[in-house]
Amino acid sequence: MLDRRALLAGAGAFALIAALRWLQTGEVEAADAFEVHKSDSEWRAILSKPQYDVLRLRRTEAPGSSPLNEEKRKGTFVCAGCELAVFSSETKFDSKTGWPSFYRPLPNAIGTSTDHVLLLPRTEVHCRRCGGHLGHVFDDGPPPTGLRYCMNGIALKFVPDAPA
Predict the structure, then answer these.
(1) Per-residue three-class SS string for 84-134
(2) Under a CB-based contact definition with an 8 Å cutoff, are residues 72 and 85 in contact?
(3) Residues 6 or more apart in contact with residue 53 via CB below 8 angstroms
(4) Residue 139: how many other CB atoms lie within 10 Å
């Protein structure tokens, strides 16, 4: 027989799981606050499914899955949604986390907000022009900033510098 304590614990666990699922799959909110406006169907038409899942649904790619982890050329990393330049290769470093990491974004390239998907607050990083979810920033990076911008490679494209 089911007692009240077990019933309440089960209901609480269900509510927590539902809330976490809703937080993780919610689209980037306030899309009209960004310069680039597209409907959901327009985003789906221009992005691959994995890009859509990360950029628009704020999901995370599997660690070690991005070829950008190994990118060593000089150039610029741009948002895969709107091609805004967001990071320079000069600020890229190997964080040993499995995701492309940078210690500084380009000026006026990103925005941040707080997410609670893992229950603890984290600083989410998004493209300031289209609102696409890029990753998170942590305070365990190298000098000179001490920050680690841990980005989803699928949310970025690399544009190499032109040969001199």
Answers:
(1) CEEEEHHHEECCCCCCCEECCCCCCCEEEEEECCCCCCEEEEEECCCCCEE
(2) no
(3) 59
(4) 9
48/45 Cα distance (integer angstroms): 8
Domain spanning 4-160: which CATH class is it, in words?
Answer: mainly beta
Q: For residue 51, give the H/E element and its range.
A: helix 49-55
**For residue 64, is it left (φ>0), alpha (ψ between -120 and 50) or beta?**
left
Say how far apart CA 59 and CA 67 lie, in whole Å.
18
Q: Which tokens in the block code for residue 49?
A: 């499914």
For 149, counting Cβ atoms within 10 Å of its Cβ (0-12 exposed, 13-18 middle, 19+ buried), the class is buried
* Burial class (CB within 10 angstroms; exposed 0-12, middle 13-18, buried 19+) of 73: exposed
pLDDT tens column, 10-63? 555 444 444 444 444 444 445 557 899 999 999 999 999 999 999 999 999 999
Model confidence over 127-139: pLDDT tens digits? 999 999 999 999 9
* Distance, C-alpha 84 to centroid of its chain: 15
Which amino acid does the sequence have at 103?
A: Y
Q: What are the residue numbers of the active site?
A: 150
- Domain limits of the chain? 4-160
